[in-house]
Each structure stands twice: as C-alpha cells, then as structure tokens.
Amino acid sequence: MRLCEFSKKEVINVSDCKCLGCVCDLKFDECSGQICAMIIKGPPKWFHLVGCDTEYVIDWKKIVRIGPDVILVDICAEKCLRKL
C-alpha cells in the first residue's frame, strides 16, 4: 500500500467514535525500515479558515483495522496530540 492510498482514508478513533482526520505522513524505523507511526493533521483552527497547529502521532500498534475507506485506531486522543 502506498502513502497516497493511506492519505485518502479517514482515521476513526474507536474509543470515542470521532474522526481524527486523514493520514498526512508515516514515520519509519531507520534500522528496520518498518512503519512505526502514522501522523495525522489535527483539527483546523478558526472555522476551518486557518491551518492547524497540532497533529496526532499514532503508534502503528494502535491500529485496529485498515479498511477500504477508513482506518480504525484505539487511542487516547489527548496522549497522541502534539503541538507544532
């Protein structure tokens, strides 16, 4: 699967059923070359007029299922949210 295919999928948190957004980047382990996390842009500020200043960094092990149009994750959103 390519990054462009991941970026078209919405990420849903199964613990609170909220849409977190779409995948914007993947983080790789330098030694093994395996994917270790996916990065999702946080919610936009000011009525969707200005870009976001946060992002979610979700560990690859927290993925529950990758479907044809969504990725289900089980996370505590506050712990995965990172300020830019």
TrEMBL record:
<dbReference type="InterPro" id="IPR011033">
    <property type="entry name" value="PRC_barrel-like_sf"/>
</dbReference>
<protein>
    <submittedName>
        <fullName>Sporulation protein, YlmC/YmxH family</fullName>
    </submittedName>
</protein>
<dbReference type="Pfam" id="PF05239">
    <property type="entry name" value="PRC"/>
</dbReference>
<dbReference type="InterPro" id="IPR014238">
    <property type="entry name" value="Spore_YlmC/YmxH"/>
</dbReference>
<feature type="domain" description="PRC-barrel">
    <location>
        <begin position="2"/>
        <end position="75"/>
    </location>
</feature>
<dbReference type="InterPro" id="IPR027275">
    <property type="entry name" value="PRC-brl_dom"/>
</dbReference>
